[in-house]
Amino acid sequence: MATAFTFPGQGSQAVGMGKDLADAHPEARAVFEEVDEALGEKLSAVIFEGPEDTLTLTANAQPALMAMSMALMRVLEARGLKLENAASYVAGHSLGEYSALCAAGMFSIADTARLLRIRGNAMQAAVPAGEGAMAAIIGLEIADVEAACAESRAHGAVQIANDNGGVQLVISGIKAAVEAAAAAATEKGAKRALLLSVSAPFHSSLMQPAAEAMREALAGVARNTPVVPVISNVRATPVSDPDEIVQLLVEQVTGQVRWRETIEWFAKNGVTTVAEVGAGKVLTGLARRIDRSVSGLNVSGPADIDPFLAAISGQTN
Predict the structure, then answer these.
(1) Max CA separation in the chain (angstroms)
(2) Which of 171, 174, 226, 264 has the most neighbouring CB atoms within 10 Å?
(3) Is 94 among the residues known to form the active site?
(4) 47 φ/ψ angles, rounded to the nearest 5 degrees
(5) Buried b (16+ CB within 10 A) or exposed e, 56-90
(6) How high is the pLDDT of residue 197?
(7) C-alpha span between 53 and 187 (Å, rounded)
(8) Beta carbons within 8 Å of 128's beta carbon, 6+ residues apart
(9) Active-site residue, 93 included
(10) pLDDT at 316
(11) Angle at the Cα of 127 (from 165 to 136), degrees rounded to 5?
(12) Over the stretch 73-89, which tens digit does the pLDDT of each residue have?
């Protein structure tokens, strides 16, 4: 029996997240203050009070979600949790991979906040507004979605960005190509093909300028060996070498988030519990849909702390 800690990605943010945690726990409050100091602005005010459209901006949502996850981790640690004893692996969905690495001690909170601010700005700037798009394809196998993308590349770049499992995939690329691929997916039997309200075509080849920005940013950041291996988004296998992880983080910007394969890898390698640390329960739901042999557990606020610690203790005793 093993446990993996997972960390959510963009879309899980909500105005007010973490405020009750920061009010109740000085360790959590210190995390939000550290992120504010690292960024040179009061991101915590936007997280706690909004407005929602400001929090949703990619450059804000990414460090905000990391701050929320790390605030929870610091509270858990203050109560005696040691990640290397509680978990065999960590993983995170897209930006959540940075949260996972921060939790595992590879990056400091301040450096992770700065990296995610750079990442968010670079991803937003990589493609002019309106040129790119993303769409969710529901109810179609990955091979058919790949075929729909291949058939649509005459219109421009388009590829699978996220494989979230439960035949839920997200495609990304040039707007006309994404629209054509969504239509082709519908013809192939998709239950739904829905254009998403996003600001850029994330996890596509169009993000190459952002990948180069992250290569430069990551090169100058202090790094430690994580206390437990991370399951890389782009490989869906465990990695521990810091230099290799940094290269994979660069590739992640343009590569596919292989979340279905990540959960399947867990199930095949002795992980019985996937514990989500951060805002919302998206990853807990995905894990359940991908493989019912893996149980889900989540901590997203003060009321979850004691039940979470009790459940984790039961797994590790």
Answers:
(1) 56
(2) 171
(3) yes
(4) -65, -45
(5) bebbbbbbbbbbbbbbbbbbbeeeebebeebbbbb
(6) 86
(7) 35
(8) none
(9) no
(10) 57
(11) 20
(12) 999 999 999 999 999 99
* Mean of pLDDT over the chain: 96
Q: Which two tokens stand for residue 82?
A: 């040691």
Give the DSSP letter of residue 14. -
pLDDT in tens, 263-272: 999 999 999 9
Residue whose C-alpha is closest to residue 97's, from 214, 209, 208, 252: 252
Q: Is the peptide bond before 26 cis (omega within 30 degrees of 0)?
A: no
Lookup result for tokens 């990640």 = 83
The answer to whether the bond into 242 is cis (omega within 30° of 0) is no
Helix (H, G, I), strand (E, B) or coil at 168: strand
Vertex 229: Cα angle to 73 and 3 (nearest 5): 60
**Token couple for 46:** 């936007």
Q: Which of 203, 204, 232, 300 is catalytic?
A: 203
In DSSP terms, which residues pair with 132 in a beta bridge? 174
**Which of 4, 28, 173 has the alpha carbon at shortest distance from 84?**
4
- Coil, helix or strand for 255? coil
pLDDT confidence band for 274 (50 / 70 / 90): very high
Give the number of other CB atoms < 10 A from CB of residue 184: 21
C-alpha 21/C-alpha 71 separation (Å) is 8
Which of 88, 94, 99, 204 is catalytic? The answer is 94
The amino acid sitting at 138 is I
